Inverse folding.
């Protein structure tokens, strides 16, 4: 059974079950269709004198209502089942071990919060929820892990979220599933699922130049962000304690300062202006690389955690 139906993640198990459900439903419909087809073909064949050919139609509305309702419920049920899986995978699962993934022609780069970087490989611990925040540096790519039944487009200019919990240690395929240029077919990698101890050992064995947040702080200094967001003469929103908080915007709506918000505010600062501030900030689109952007966002997140401590 397990060879045919492996359960590398809880999500994979759910997707397989849904797939079997779809297959069983369509098989039932197909069987019914062919049964009727054959039955009528045999019964009304030429020369069968016992068949009633007077074409009298006798049916009640009960029958119509019953079969229409039954099929509606069955197929809407499948839809609800699938939608629920979709929401679970791509919904607001904001907790878990965060790893940033950057796609570029033609490689996958992963950055751990501790500052560990890897290319075309992703090490994750067993039985922990892993949250990937993915972005692209150039064109649309698609992060595809067939064993986990997970595929998600990675779109330039946007951070996409994905959570999964591996249930079996081992090495699994990673593919790019969106045609992205010459070497698209070679944009492959490995997902390495390790026992927690091995994973921690792996983390500490990597060459690291400071945590991701520390790298972000360096970029923050280099770009002179503190000139406005620090205690300088220009009035700009404070970044300490900002992450995860609601932000009142100038158009009257309330935003939440999550990763996507921070990211957008750096790349497209005029799209969402914080209420009470002038739209003074220049866009950093093209002036900051994806790697740097991720590091700066991690730095701003770390400021929130610092602000929480007494
Ligand atoms: Cu990246 Cu195809």
């Amino acid at each position: 059974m397990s060879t045919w139906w492996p359960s590398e993640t809880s999500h994979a198990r759910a997707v397989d079950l849904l797939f079997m459900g779809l297959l069983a439903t369509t098989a039932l419909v197909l069987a019914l269709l062919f049964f009727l087809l054959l039955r009528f073909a045999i019964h009304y064949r030429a020369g069968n004198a016992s068949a009633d050919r007077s074409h009298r139609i006798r049916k009640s509305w009960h029958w119509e209502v019953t079969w229409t309702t039954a099929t509606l419920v069955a197929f809407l049920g499948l839809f609800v089942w699938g939608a629920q899986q979709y929401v679970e995978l791509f919904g607001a699962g904001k907790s878990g071990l965060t790893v940033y993934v950057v796609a570029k022609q033609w490689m996958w780069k992963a950055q751990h919060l501790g500052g560990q970087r890897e290319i075309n490989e992703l090490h994750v611990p067993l039985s922990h929820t892993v949250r990937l925040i993915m972005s692209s540096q150039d064109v649309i790519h698609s992060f595809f892990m067939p064993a986990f039944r997970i595929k998600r487009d990675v779109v330039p200019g946007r951070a996409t979220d994905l959570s999964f919990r591996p249930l079996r240690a081992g090495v699994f395929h990673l593919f790019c599933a969106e045609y992205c240029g010459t070497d698209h077919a070679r944009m492959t990698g490995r997902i390495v699922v390790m026992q927690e101890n091995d994973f921690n050992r792996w983390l500490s064995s990597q060459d690291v130049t400071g945590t991701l947040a520390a790298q972000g702080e360096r970029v923050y200094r280099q770009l002179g962000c503190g000139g406005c967001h620090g205690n300088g003469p220009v009035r700009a929103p404070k970044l300490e304690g900002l992450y995860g908080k609601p932000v009142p915007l100038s158009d009257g709506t309330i935003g939440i300062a999550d990763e996507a918000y921070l990211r957008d505010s750096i790349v497209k600062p005029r799209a969402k202006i914080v209420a009470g501030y002038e739209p003074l900030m220049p866009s950093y689109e093209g002036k900051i690389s994806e790697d740097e952007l991720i590091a700066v966002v991690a730095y701003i997140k770390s400021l929130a955690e610092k602000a929480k401590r007494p």
The domain at 97-205 is CATH 2.60.40.420 (Immunoglobulin-like). The two ends are 54 Å apart (CA to CA). The first helix runs from residue 10 to 43. Residues 103, 106, 141, 176, 178-180, 184, 187 surround dinuclear copper ion (CB under 6 Å).
